[in-house]
Each structure stands twice: as structure tokens, then as C-alpha cells.
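User: Hey, my collaborator sent me this sequence without any context and asked if I could get a structure. I don't really work with proteins. Can you help?
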Amino acid sequence: MILRFKASVLSLSIVSLSLWGAADVSGYAGQARSQRQQMPVYRGGVDLVVLNVAVLDDDGEPVTGLTAEDFKISEDGVRQEIALFASSSNTPLDIALVLDMSGSVAASAPAIKRDAKAFLDALGPSDCVYFVPFQEVVHAGTWSAPDAAALIYLLNRIPLQGGTALYDALARGLANVNRARYPNLPEDQGSNDYLRVDGDNCGSPLPPASLGIPGSVRRTAVVVLSDGGDEHSEATYADTLVNAWSNTVPIFSIGVGDALEPVARRFRNTDKRIASMMDDSFRSTRLVWWLRAYSRELQKRLRFLSEITGGRLVLGNGPATVRDAFDEVVKMLRSSYLVGYNQPAGNVSPGISGLSWHQVDVEILEEDASFFVRPGYYRELHDRGGAEQIVRESLELIAAERHSEAVKQLDLAARLDPGYWPIYLHRARSLLRTDRLEDARDDLLATLELRPELGLAHELLADTVFRLGNFKLAWYHAIRAAQDGVDMLPLVSELMRVSEGPPDLAEQLSAVRIFVDVGPPAVEIDQATLLELLRVLRSEMSVATDIALVSKSSDATAALILETQVVSGRPRKLEGKLVIRDRDWRQAIRDEKLEIDDLDDQAEIKSGISKAAYEMRVWIQKTYGQ
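Assistant: No problem. I've predicted the 3D structure and written it out in C-alpha cell form, which is a compact way to encode the shape of the chain:
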């Protein structure tokens, strides 16, 4: 039997920072392998799509001895030639060990330190470790061989206390393992400031084209141990997702600790009115739902972050299970194969606005085995030309705190392409750093006009209008951001000091989550019209406060898909439908007819979509309502 899996990959070329979507991951089994000795294989290619494929038998043990001939890869249904192949048995590992040393995991402190050392002992002599401890700040990282005395000393001497800066620590870990493996990456993909080359050469950038040198191929991974909370990072969760999708490094997460207590402590420390709730009756307050939902959300974030990269979340919730979690990660690292192919040119398929999703299917010949990898990758639907390049350049200016220059650059980009939402989002970031609150508010509103489900924009706008004194609008956007999974507890704490929240706060926070996207387009429809239809649909669905639009399908209860079936005549008439599917798009649950008499008339587009969207909103509210 041939086992097929919808695998995940990402091109080594830099992915657009407008990336926000993702897909779910699951594993399947396969059969019949041949026993052949394998060596690292590499055959050219500039834009290499790389997969880390972990293969385990029915007992959860690594499957060894597979060769390139045991794998088949297809992208969008087209078979691809394997250009890179290496196994764990002959491929050393560069690994970032990102350890949460904050107070929220203090209860597991003895187990964390003891079992982290055992994890290091289980690595191979040719492996290298970049150790990144973090609390409310990210401590200086250290490259070292796994058994280095200095590394063990550093692990033992750091007390577990303080807050957390998880996202910043992950960014540093990803940057360093990439710099060690791909020395020609741009500077913004990993700062040399954090690279330390020890006498054992761990952390040294490999020679150019090292993937093509037999014996020089190295695998990479990040292992992070944390409760998933983050109180002090400059990076956001959205930034971390973009970073993860922009790398080929699998992230293996070990979930430990209790994130609920730090959240409650933050409320105690910032609001006396809330502090009065933090007694024996605390768990009967209306905040309980939100606090518990937040704690579950942290675990879900770790799981999602791991799975989109081809890794896994393993729970180690008590001292007795931390070692088991580390052992499970070691098994997965030992079972991985590095498989790559050259990215096909020119093929695009519809996906989230401005990007195209490329499904990657893997077939493996192996009896009684399971395996897991990433589910696919995104590519630009169409070239944004000069506007996109200007946005990329402006991001460098923003990172360098040169905000006036960045705003001027983005002004030009807006004239070139007024429909490109990252322009307004990033310009708002610079405007906020220079205290131009009204201008930033206008840009964030423009962003949400184009992408009304974007949690990051709601988060920034909620904070902006709060500073401008518009508390009612701040509540609205804070709730919208929370519906998309953004941590809004700090701002809500501030809001509760000065303003009553909406009476249906709990109901809004538990609203049904809908992911809106387009299906395969009619042949006759152009890309610009398709994106405009999607924009209007999202806008129409966002008017209902008890329906939460989310930016990731994995967070959704269901997906609302715009299907454009037939475009005919002059003026162009559209016949299609809106379809509610499960979040994996596998099963159609409900559909609503969609007709637009003139695709070149903005009023006709709004009228047609508004009618169908209204019927769909009513059905969603009746079906999924509280």
C-alpha cells in the first residue's frame, strides 16, 4: 500500500511578509520499503523546497534505512524530482534549545534542568546546540557541543523566575540555526551579533553551497520548552508565525507550567477592582471563562506553531513527564529525513489574498509506519511590482527605527498600489512610533477595510483609539483581536479601569469563528476582480459581532468559501455560491446562491454579495449561536 500525506514545505527563497494563513497537519501510514544504504543526495536548484519528514513505526520508534527512492513528492498534483535527500543517521543536527526559565514554570524547575541535560546527552557527538534561555529578557545565546561543560554550567546557574519573552527567544533561535546552515542569508534573517563560534566550530557558517557537499549537509531544528505565555516580547504571535513560515526549520514544543497564574497575577498587579475578584470566589467571576480560554489558547498556539513547521507539541505538564516529553522529541529528531525538490516556476492557485497555497503530497513506501511534515507553502498570486519591493525596503527602515523615511517610502507605495494592505499596516506602525495617532488610526482603518479579519490590525487599532480616548471603539477592536487569538488581556485590564465593557462580552469572545476565502476561480475571472469579491465578502461578514472572522483556517469552526462558477456575457455576469465547509474544506455543510449582474459595477458587486452574505449570516447565527 502507498501512503499519501498532504505534506508541508517552504521554499528557501524569502517569503513575503504579508503571509498570515496556514493549514492543519496530520499523519498517516505507509508500507513496503527496500533496505538500501543511503547517502546525502543533492542535484542543483536555486529555490529549493525542503521537507523534514519524520517517520515512526507502530511502536513510535524511528524508521531507518529509507532512501530517496522510497519517497514520492507532488506539488499541486504534479510529480517532482527529489533534488536533496539525507537521513538522520548520517546528517548532523544544528539545534536551538529555547528554554523558558520564567517563574511560571518554576514548579517544574528540578525536572526541567535535569531532563534538559539528559536531552543534551542523547544528542550525537557531531551535533551542535545553540542554547537560548529566556525570562522577561532573552539571555545571550551560546553555541556549543552538547556535552560542553560550559553549557551544563549555564543551564544549572540560571534561576527560574520572572516573566517571559517567548516570541523574541524563538526569533533568536530560528535566526541562529539558519545562519549556521545557510551563510548567504541576508543579515535580517539572523544577526551575527548572536553567533558565537566555539573551539569545536559549533555555530560556524558552513561553506557556500554546503547542501551540495557530501558530508556537509546538516539538519536544523528548534526545541522550545515553555507554557506558551508571553508578556515581554517585542515580537507578536503574528510575527512569530510569519517567521516560522519563512524558515524550513521544524519547531518541537514541550508544553509545561501553568500559564493561568501569571495571567491572574497580571490582573492583580494592574487593577485593584480586578484584584478584589482574586479570592476564593475568583473562579465564579465572568473573567474565568476568558482566563481559562486564554490558557487553552496558549497551548493551542504552541501546537499550531509546531505543526505548521513540521514539528510537534509534546505535553510535559508535571515533573514526572518532562523527561518523557524530551525523550519523545529525541525520537522524532532521530526519525527525520531531509527531502527537497526544486520549486516549480509559474504555477499559481488561489488562496488568501495576495498569496497562493501550494499543496504538497508525499507518498512513502514503508510498512506499518506513520510520518508527519508541513502541509504546504504559500507563494505570491501575482507580482505587486514596485509597491511590494518598497514595502520590503520600508521594513528594513522600520527595523532600524528610521520611521520618517519609512513613512515617505510607504506613501509612494500607496500611490503605486492603493489596494495592497501591508502598506497601510506597516505605515501605521511607523506613525505610532512617532506618536502620530490620528494618522495611524486612519491607516489601520484602511488596513481593516481590505482585511477585516486581521487580528494584528485590530490589536493596534484598539490600543491607538484607547490612547485617543475612544473607549467604545477600543472595546470593539480589542474583542475583534481577541476573537482572532490575540492576547488582549493587558489592554482590557486598562479599559476596565475607565469604561464598562459590552454586556455581552463573554458571548462575543465565544463567538463562532469563521475563516473566509475563495475557491478555484472561474476561468473567465481576473485576479483583481477575485480579490475585490473576497474583500467585499469579508467586509459584509464582519458586521455581525457574534461572528468572529479569523485569519487562520486552523482557528476556525468552519470555512466560508466564495465559489465563482461561471462568468458570461457583456456586462460580465457572475453565477456562483457561498459555501460553508468544515475548516479543512472537505465537507460542504451549507450553500447560498450568489449572482452579480455586472462585475464591473462596484454597486452591483456589493448588492449581490450583501444579499447572499446576509442569508449566510442568519444561518450561521441560528446554527452556531449560543
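In plain terms: The chain has three domains: 3-90+336-380, 93-321, 511-626. You can pass these C-alpha cells on to your collaborator as they are.
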